[in-house]
Write a structure and sequence with these properties.
Length: 64
C-alpha cells in the first residue's frame, strides 16, 4: 500500500526534484548515460571539425 502512495508523491513532486534526494537518486542513473552520450557525441563532432579544418589547410597550402 505504501508503495503506490510513494510513486504518487514522487509523480506529484516531479517538477521540483532538487528538494527530494530520493528523486535525484532516481534520476541519476537516467541522466548519467545521456551525459556521457552527449559528451562523446560532441567530442566526435569536434574531431570531425578539426579534421575538416586540417584538410582545408593542407589543400590551401598545396594549391598553387
Amino acid at each position: 500500500m505504501s508503495n503506490t502512495s510513494q510513486s504518487h508523491t514522487s509523480g506529484a513532486f516531479h517538477p521540483s526534484p532538487p528538494r527530494w534526494p530520493h528523486s535525484s537518486l532516481y534520476t541519476a542513473p537516467h541522466s548519467c548515460p545521456s551525459l556521457v552520450g552527449c559528451l562523446s557525441y560532441s567530442h566526435a563532432i569536434g574531431m570531425q571539425r578539426n579534421t575538416r579544418l586540417a584538410e582545408a589547410r593542407w589543400s590551401n597550402m598545396s594549391a598553387p
